[in-house]
Queue: 2 jobs
Job 1
Amino acid sequence: MKWDTELLLLSGYHLSKNREQMSHKGNILVIDDEQVILDAVKKICGSENFDVDESLNAKDALNKLDKKKFDLMFCDIMMPEIDGFKFLDEINHRKIETPVIMTTGYSTVENAVNSLYKGAIDFIPKPFTADELLNSVYRGIKYFEIQKELKESAQLNRDATLIYVACPAKYYRLGYASWVSVENKGTALIGITDLFLKTIESVADIQFLNIEDEIIQGISCIQITCTDGLTHSVLAPVSGRIIEINEELSKNKTIIEKDPYFQGWLYRIIPNDLDYELKHLIPCSSDRI
Amino acid sequence: MFNKIGFKLIVAVGLTAIITIGVFAYFNIQRQSNALLAEVERHANQLSETVKSSTRYDMLLNQRDRIDKTIISIGSQTEIRNVRILNKLGEIIYSSHKEDVGKMVDKRAESCYACHEANRPLERLPINKRTRIYRIDPDSSRILGIISPIYNARSCWEAECHAHSKDKTILGVLDVTTTLADVDHEIKRGEIEIVIFALAAIIALSFIIGFLVRRWIDKPVNELLKATDQVGVGNLNYTIKDKGNDELGKLAGSFNVMTQKLSEARMQLFQSDKLASLGRLAAGVAHEINNPLTGVLTYSSFLLKRTQDNPELQEDLKVIVRETKRSREIVKSLLDFARQSVPKKNNVDVNEIIEQAATVVENQLTINHVKLEKKLDHNLPQIIADANQIQQVFINLLVNANDAIGKGGGIITVSASLLSLSPFGVAQIKRAACPKRHDLVDNEFKIEGLPAIKLKAKFNGNEEIIHLDPVYGRRAHQYLEEVDVNKKLNILCPECNTSMNEENSKCPKCGSPLFSIPVPRESNFEACTRVGCDYQHWESVDEAGKKDYVEIKISDTGCGIPQDDVARIFEPFYSTKGQKGTGLGLAVIWGIIDNHNGIIKVESEMGHGTTFVIRLPLKQK
């Protein structure tokens, strides 16, 4: 039982000593009707010096949001009374800018896509590992920082493209992470947004799927390992069959960071039901208004 | 009874028989009586000629006594009623009845009117006009009279008595009357005989038809009615036995096929219903189980992160994390199965997966004294598959085999080999689009579990949605209505009505036009527009030649599966293990193999063992 006390001492040490540092790293609100999830998130994120607040239901969370500002929220979908989607609607309605990561035990494609469409920045299906949670949390915090930076640069009338390049007007995106561009011949290109790349460290490796594989909207289609050793999954923006993989990109991983929208595409696919799936994506043209 | 089709048929046939036989009998009687009368007439005519010639000499010599005697003796024959000779004035000169001699006969009398009908008497009388048939009173028998004029001749006016002058044509008339009693009797008898015959024929005919109707129509129709009633109350397993080879037999045959299809459809409905409830169950289970699993996974993975300096602990924690991740995959695959989602495929080595699965079940097998024999082809190429799912399949099948063997011990044989199958009857059209790129694959309509090709067919001005069997060469097409096998269809896109008929290309089997469905990334799929023609051609698939499969066989020496269960073991919730199983294992396996475009079959013999055969395609199309 040596490790146990060690661990407790270790976390206690962090909790007491680095309180000031912690608030710099960000404060997170976790909303779930299961206490064990709240405890787990609290423990994991707390160990990484995040300040974690918890709510057993959405109503309580909204009350907390009235009193305090958070850098990130982590919210379950299936909750009594106000579910995750209604909570997202309420957040949008109140113009609360804190990014939200959604999770659920009923991890269907529809739930994932719907969450991202309603403005959540990420979706992690339950059960998740500590690393999966932390990867997403770090991206969320980074995302919020970029949004703040963007606001500041707007106030100073600086060029926003210096921070990140928004995706081209004719593209569609799933959440803020992946984009799809419909080609004339009935195929489509999919790729990763610059904003997503800015929320992670430099790309060290990309694990592609194979040609002929099927990808499904809302389910991970690629894994990106960064120089810090973290691996991030990106959800496919549309469903279809992969017919081509960007050879240039697999040879030279840096292309994706230099030109994520053109040379840095990932897959060329034959979409299954583009018309239907585009309805759940956000047109990039709306970003420019 | 009167509404029965058999009775109606007997009445119809009976009436026809009565009319035909009646008409035949009537004309037959007519003809016979006419023939008899004609014979009697000829006879009477001959008789009068005989009388005339036998009395001629006596007349020339004026031997009246002798003439008298001759006439009386002739007239005394039973059939002859009267023989008379009249002179020109109508006076009876001779008669077989003595008392008539000297009497005058009215010109209007029966014997005279043939000549004296018109005002002026005829000088020559044709033979057929000489006879007459009459009755003296209604009760007496009929009488045939024949008159024979006695013409003037040279010998008459040159005779010694020279009673007749030369300028007269007719000297008198011989009148013979005979009774027709015998003839009438004969005719009557003939009539009765024919009527009796006709009646007998009608009755016999009715009986024969009745018998045949009962045998050929009543029995099969009753059998059909019985079967319909059975189907009506829901007994879809009822089949009609000993059906003949006539139309009713064929009807019974199609009835059997129909009930069989109905029963299959009901089964499928049942299964999809079960699948739907399984989906709901899976969703509930997933939600409920995923929360505690999150607790386990987050804490264990967190500990794993925090105890990197404790290798002993790391090993144990890794097991917890790995097994929890496996549970996560199992719950996910349950959800995936319920939603029939696509597996995550990679290049995998089947042999390796089998080895891994074998390691997992090794302990269980040892306890039961089961020996695992592996006959693996070590040159097997890799296949593209979801290693986790395929491993799950093998583990499940091995555990099943172990359970089937029981405690007594036995042998499980696992073999893996390469197999080539011709595309005809195997290859599936998975994508199809009309020339204007409308998707033709109908996921809502499945033929033997595979999404059908939805088309619009036009014939005789009717438009009809038809579903084409997606398996190349199998032709289990589904039409909404029965279509004549010789109909030539005009195949259209159901969305935009673009015709896919190729009027210029002719079917090499029957010469009808072909239709051609564009298949993305393959050549067009061609088939004959004539419903009954089995010609199909898919060039790129044929050219690709035989397709390679990896065939995995898992055989056990266990108790075997009863024949009734074999057909149902892949159904969800169908368990032969009673309380021990959920009944989901094989259903999940079936779903996994299906998602890999593979085939799973089972062969079993009671008491000897069971073999599961899995075929996975080498290259995913």
Job 2
Amino acid sequence: MSPALRERLVAVAVRVAGVSTIAFILVIFFFLIQQGLPALVEVPLSDLLARRWYPIEGVFGLLPLVLGSLLVTLGATVIAVPLGLLTAVYIAEVAPRPVREVLKPFIEVLAGLPSVMLGFLGIVALAPELYHRLNLSTGLTAFTGALLLGWIAIPTIVSVAEDALDAVPRAYRDGALALGANHWQTIWRVTLPAARGGVLTAVMLGIGRAFGETMAVMMVTGNAAVMPLGLGSLFQPVRTMTATIAAEMGEVAGGSLHYHVLFLVGILLFLISLAVNLVGASVVFRARTRAERILS
Amino acid sequence: MSRTTKVHARRRRRQWTQRAGFALLTAAAIATTLPIVLIVFVILRRGLAALTPEFLFTFPTDGLRAGGIYPAILGTIFLTFFMTIVVAPLGIAAGIYLAHYAPDNRLTRAIRVAILNLAGIPSVVYGLFGLAFFVIFFQMGTSILAGALTLAIMTLPVVITTTEEALRSVPNSFHVVSVSLGGTDWQSVRRILLPQGLPGILTGVILGVERAAGETAPILFTRRWRFLIISTSSRPRSRACRPKCSTARPPSC
């Protein structure tokens, strides 16, 4: 094979590999639609928007599932975002060197823990504890799920945000300190704003991880498909979209209406994560271009 | 009050804010890590006793209620092995493309958005896709192959992004020198960039494989699900969580 031909072949091969990512997104979407569309045709929209999910009787109201997912994700976000960001700032800016060298790899290992394992711990340790401490009727509640998901999302947020803070050029910090700002002011007014894009990515990834989490949530939220309305429902069982798919797909008859509706739930999950990612990407992109404009 | 005392007061206040702020940050770091240390401790204390060679290398008996987890371990090994074979070349090639070949145009931006989205899709949705695409459309049935391919697609974004970053972190001068000595694109990549970026690339592949091996939801519908909870916890790294399965299993199977 002549060198020129080899060059061309390699260029084409790597290009195909790159473009394959777009193809995968499209194929995933297509096949979800293909399996989920019959549900949209057969179940009237008003039924899908009903407040009850009871597939055995053919009642497919998706509202409790969607709200369940939102409630648990919101709870996890409230816990994980402040704690995660503060921890990231601590590790990147404040921690003494030895502490930092221990904490950083530790957090990164945690980001890779399988969620089934955390879910199991949620059942055997966290849920009974909450049940006794808060005097609930059951330990498997939205709050338990949010708490667990919070700690699942934290390592992701910390490690990505910490990288972003670390990437801020040393000169920015030196400049701020030279102008008389103290360490604290430098962190809040210089370093964090400079790392805004990466910090935002960290938050999005953390929320995404919480939203898409399946096994842990299925194990600790109790899985009752009721409408979570009001603050009180935080301490009652809920059922998320992801848990519904995981729990019911294994049992459902292939090609039945229930089966197609589960794919519809999958489409919903896909679209929500797509929307969140696109918005996040555009915000990060805009922040970056603005920063570049100011700095150049 | 004179000017200097005012300045002093302000400085004191600033210092106080800083001290309080740092205390807050430290508290946050402790609050995030302490529960996790606790978790590891609990697992080790409760689980280590059950970790015996018999448990690892015998077949489950008594309707999965007793015996060992040998088939699950083998299943996980095969699954991750085939997945790696698929994802490593594809992901590394795509990473090379993005780091070295891709022009800054609309297509490249679309690829980046696609990678971001692949990374964001919930893992159950990959499970549904694997069921619709590999199991049903390609008629692979519920098999290791279907599971491995599904996991490979899920892992792809991790491998691509870490490969790209590893290649980009190689100083540009290396590449410039290679080209100035008459090296072609591919020669520079293969002889200079890849060897330099190899540690980073390996990190990416291992990270991706590790994540996939611990993942449960995507293989729920593409593999036989009775082995699932056991198989995911037989990950070599988190050996401590294996024994839990012996207690967790009965209700779910």
